[in-house]
Amino acid sequence: MMFDDVRDLYQEVILDRGRRPRHGKRPAAYDSSARGDNPMCGDRCTVFVQRAADGTVRDIGFEARGCAISVASADLMAEAVSGLDGDQVRTLAEKFRTLARTGQGDDPDLETLRPLAGVHEYPSRVKCATLPWHALVAALDGQQEASSE
Amino acid sequence: MNTMSRLAPPFDVAGVREKFPILSQTVRGKKLVFLDSAASAQKPVEVIEAMAETMRTQYANVHRGLHWMSERTTDAYEGVRDDVARLLNAPDRHEIVFTRNSTEAINLVAHSFGRGMMRAGDAVVISAMEHHSNLVPWQMLRDAHGTELRVAAITDAGELDFADLEAKLADRRVKLVAITHMSNVLGTYTPAERIAALAHAYGARVLFDGSQAAVHRRVDVQAIGADFYVFTGHKLYGPTGIGVLWARRALLEEMPPFLGGGEMIGTASFERCTWAEVPHKFEAGTPAIIEAIGLGAAIRFVDHIGYDAIARHEAALTDHALARLGQIPGLRVVGRAQDRGGVVSFTMDGAHAHDVATLLDRQGIAVRAGHHCAEPLMRRLGLDSTARASFGVYTTREEVDALADTLERIRTFFA
Predict the structure, then answer these.
(1) Would the CB atoms of B351 and A68 count as touching at under 8 Å?
(2) Helix-strand-coil percent breakdown of chain B, rounded to 5?
(3) Pairwise CA distance, residues B235 & B295, whole Å
(4) Mean per-residue pLDDT of chain B
């Protein structure tokens, strides 16, 4: 099979989430949002967050224009951060960045995100995976825009 | 097919490929299929050797030393001005200004002609299919100098809209029309003679960005009637760091210098300087000597193959690519200009250009994906990004087939 060697990156879950993201929409109500742009490739991801009174993520959605990797990453991110507070999100964002860059990370918190570990073999695509996280952290920090690095 | 092309000798692509050591490499265990020449072309041994030989045997600074090494190097460097003049059919070797690349050449014109010979309220017209290099310098000029920037529309086929261009020229405030000679996204050749004639009819000068065109077609600045023409060495099988501005001598004489420093002065005192004669007035500092010598070798390489042969070879590849890609369901080639060259941008339903490029790369096939430094054009086309395959003298029909076959499989992969 011609593309066997890319299955580490393009796993079925990535293809599926890239094609049919579950959280790829603007929530009915949200209290912060931020846009991430990758000027080198034109990818864009806007993340919308609604937080509960205790500061934890209650609802999250995104609007993305980009490749399968960036859309799938945004979609899995939405699931991974649900119920976390701001500091927990930032910690997870750091762990995910390391996972995307190095493939390393056996933290149970990364379970949902592990399908994206394969991106570390593709240095030019790491930013695709991390873009939604930059947007999310910017939204939590009360900024409107995030750059990819 | 006409009789001429049937009588033309077959293009010896295998012989050409032997000149490019890099093409025999494997990538990820696969035979390299390099289809990204529009971004930067590979280098033949002639270029590699000319540069290495200069450093090995005769390198010194130019225009300075009263010694053998410097004289030899100066001769080689200045000889390239003659090579470039011949390449462009420029009437006068003093009209060849060396720059770092096309971008710097356009910035030179924006700065020297723009600030020196245009006034606030004057306008520049570009087209909707420019590379950022022929957009940003004019925005900077506008913001610093009060000139206006106008954008002539393109048609849905990706050709220049002449009615719109003429409308943009109608009030005669336009002093410069700056337009690509071949689009790096759509592959469109613009009809340079017609653009120049129209610009001149309205009292405007005309600049062509030949970054792509000069690689694929013989450029004749006199036949075109151009006032400025720029191109870059690295796309023409030469090294990075060397580009060219050609301009009519009378313009260069009138334009103030761009950068100041050594090489570009006549006499200097703490109070004032006089400028060197053209083209040296525009070449401040130690130039890219080794790179210029490499460019000379690249020009002789291209000349040796001949532009007629190159154009025929690339036209056949482009026709073949358009035919093969046209058969892939869900694949859309962007731009369908009548007169087009070997740059083919496309989108694929259900697969983003970056994903397509990554999968191609895994098969050893190098293409570019993204906005190709032409974001406003992408917006005009209603696209975020495309994948782009581009061809050079060394591209083979088999490589085009490899691209098409792999794209067929990628379509299935993402379906």
Answers:
(1) yes
(2) 45, 20, 35
(3) 10
(4) 95
Closest CB from B355, B363, B370 relative to A68: B355
Q: Are residues B322 and B246 in the same domain?
A: no
Question: Does the residue A52 lie in any domain?
Answer: yes
- Domain-ending residue, one of B289, B304, B319: B304
Contact: A6, B359; criterion CB under 8 Å: yes
Instruction: Judge whether residue B2 has pLDDT over 60.
Output: no
- Taking only Cα atoms into account, the Rg of chain A, rounded to an integer number of angstroms, comes to 14
CATH number at residue A22: 3.90.1010.10
Residues B147 and B237 both lie in one domain: yes
User: Which of B270, B304, B338 is where one domain is finished?
Assistant: B304
Query: From CA B216, how far away is CA B236, in angstroms rounded?
Result: 9
Which structural domain, as residue segments, surrounds residue B15? 3-31+306-414
On whether both B282 and B192 belong to a single domain, the answer is yes
Residue range B200-209: mean pLDDT, rounded: 98
The complex's ipTM?
0.89
Can B373 be counted among the known catalytic residues? yes
What is the pLDDT at residue A146?
Answer: 81
Beta bridge partners of B346: B333, B387
Tokens linked to A103: 């493939």
Is A1 a residue whose pLDDT tops 80?
no
Q: Which residues in chain B are closer than 8 Å to A19, comparing Cβ atoms?
A: 350, 414
Q: Which residues of A touch B (CB under 8 A)?
A: 2-3, 5-6, 9-10, 15, 18-19, 40-44, 65-69, 122, 124-125, 128
* A5 domain-assigned: no
Min Cα–Cα distance to chain A from B307, Å: 34
- Provide the residue range defining the domain that includes A21: 17-147
| Residues of B engaging A, defined by a Cβ cutoff of 8 Å | 28, 350-355, 358-359, 362-363, 369-371, 375, 378, 384-385, 406, 409-410, 413-414
Give me the pLDDT at residue B262, please: 87
Chain A partners within 8 Å of B353 (Cβ):
67
Residues of chain B with pLDDT > 90: what percent?
A: 87
B355-391 per-position pLDDT tens digit: 999 999 999 999 999 888 898 999 899 998 999 999 9
Spatial distance between the Cα atoms of B131 and B148, rounded to a whole number of angstroms: 19
Number of domains chain A contains: 1
Rounded to the nearest angstrom, the minimum Cα separation between B357 and chain A is 11
**Residue of A11, A63, A67 for testing the chain B interface, max B β-carbons within 10 Å:** A67
What is the count of structural domains for chain B?
2
Burial class for A50, CB neighbours closer than 10 Å (0-12, 13-18, 19+): middle
Note whether residue A10 is domain-resident: no
